[in-house]
């Protein structure tokens, strides 16, 4: 329970930080226009795949997302849409795209080149996973520092008393991407000093919630 309490506080702090941020540029409002939503999904999906091929962290995150049944169901739904099929048809007719596919095909036909490509992907995955883990540890460390502030502790406790927020938090904890925070916390608790700090913080947080 102590571990879960610390995990909960990290999520609380993350949400508090997001709600207090101010954007200078009006964000894209998803859900108002189905056609624009479809275009947005397609462009983000294509851009994400292309960028993931060059970014180890994005590649690792992409593989993690592929383990999420809900995300995969949404992706399947998007790929079955007329807008997606139209976009893919245009892409497959692009000369540079065809050239890239042909190059990949030739590479895979050569055992040595195929092995090199596999090794490169595996290396990128390892680097990406390490980057995600390091980022998660930084987030957990920031959460611990923030919870040392009595005002932040009180606000987190107030939010935790809200049944609706508890439900949202429960759903968030089921997200596969949240596992990185659990893993990061477990690694951090290997250090006796950090473990003692986390346990003390968990006790203080429980007391604040029960007030």
Describe this structure in words.
By secondary structure, this protein is mostly helical. It has one domain (2-17, 34-210). Helix content is 82%, strand content 0%. Helix 3 (56-65) packs across helix 7. The longest helix has 36 residues, at 111-146. Mean pLDDT is 70; it is low at 1-10 and 12-26.
Mean pLDDT over all positions: 70
Number of strands: 0
Radius of gyration over C-alpha positions, nearest whole angstrom: 22 Å
> Hey, roughly how much beta strand do the residues contain?
under 5%
Q: Provide a count of the helices.
A: 11
Which segments are poorly predicted (pLDDT under 50) over 5 or more consecutive residues? 1-10, 12-26
Number of domain units: 1
Helical coverage, percent range: over 70%
**Structural class, from secondary structure content?**
mainly alpha
User: How many angstroms separate the termini?
Assistant: 19 Å
What is the element string, with H for helices and E for strands? Answer: HHHHHHHHHHH
Q: Categorize the overall geometry.
A: elongated
Largest sheet: none
